[in-house]
Amino acid sequence: MEFIPYSPQENSLDTFLNRDEDGSFYLGHAAVLVRINKKNYLIDAVYPQPLFLNSWLFFPELIVDRRLLSVEGVFISHCHEDHYDINFLKDLKPGTPIYITENRIGFEKIVNDNSFHVIEIPPFEKYSINNDIDVLAIPSDHNNFDSSFVIKGKNFSVFQGNDNFLDEKSLRKARDIIGPVDHAYIPYSYVWWYPYCLASISDTIRKQEAERLTENNMRIGLNMAEIFEASLVIPSAGNLVFYEGVNSVLNREIASPFDFLDYAHKINSSIGEKTLPLFSGDYALKDGNKPFIYTKNKTRDDFFIEMDIFLKSIQSNIPNNDDINLSNISILKIKEKLNKLNLQKYPFDIFFYPNNKKEISIKVSLRDYSFGIVKTPELYINSIQFSIEPSVFLSWIDLQISFESVLNSQRFLVYRSPEEFNKEIWDLLRNFF
Length: 433
Fold this sequence. Notes:
This protein is of the alpha/beta class. It has helices at 12-17, 86-90, 108-111, 168-178, 193-196, 203-227, 249-253, 257-267, 269-274, 300-312, 328-339, 390-397, 403-409, 423-432, and strands spanning 2-5, 23-28, 31-36, 39-43, 56-58, 73-75, 97-101, 117-121, 127-130, 133-139, 147-152, 157-160, 183-186, 232-235, 240-242, 283-287, 290-295, 349-354, 361-365, 370-374, 383-388, 412-417.
């Protein structure tokens, strides 16, 4: 690979769009601009905005340009807001094809709106989007919303894995259908509330669990690069940072692209030699069989220094409201919602309270879905406590957001007894609360 530096002041998108070679331009996070045969396609492009109750921020910031609205087509991997932005789709040139994988949930708004030109691609089939470009849609093998894409022309191809951590069987099936790829944008990071928000375990166990889960995801990303025989491997879809600061647990313990680079060199040095952390504004072209990489060539130190400056310039938009009162309206809303639940019962109690006023605690008994307010929530066998940031708590009890949004925000701590994962109860929390 040949590395060609460019200055931070240079508009690299101008340069990329004025070239003719096949290649991919990294807009940031999961957003990639792919050029094949002088045709431009977008994958998971969104407008930059704070995500999940303003908790998560794109860093480095996404590249946004009006010219991205006049592409040949747009691919969307799944319905999460860091990959799917209806406002961006509304601004596309009228009639622009929007490609999604068939039978994925969460796209009802655009599928049922005739103002969008949505095309559903059958999974694990070569799908021709014009005479010289094929696409392979690869659905998740463990959920009903994630998917990945390979876009392949006669002389160039790109894989974007997005958040879709596929097993080896699915990867080999895809490789057998579509063949090797030139650029592989692979997922690698582990980002979820567990174990970072779990307060009923020690720091040592939390770090061990975070390392275990991160290594599992990096192993899958490495498998993707190996099986697709990628010429260039870009760790992607992990460029979000938590609002609290550069030294917060989440920003220090969630893997960076440099951590994947180290992992690749350790496990498979040949893949490590092909791996390069790219950031928004970097791009790669293919000239013959040789990739040319245009990059600011950031180091790990550069990355964290710039993150610190960025986070200090950003203030969370959620006020930390100390004035918490459970109004009669809020209580009635929760009671009405619980009364509508005709679900399996469990010998379990769940407590929810703002982290500054534990004495205002909502107790929900899953034994009969009864509801009450208690001043002294207890952590006993078969119970869970959620200590939630006040304004997030208020938004939830007023039914402005779902509990899934609370979980995604990671603006809470959770205490469990027993200290184990009960899938049925967590599915209940995610789907009905």
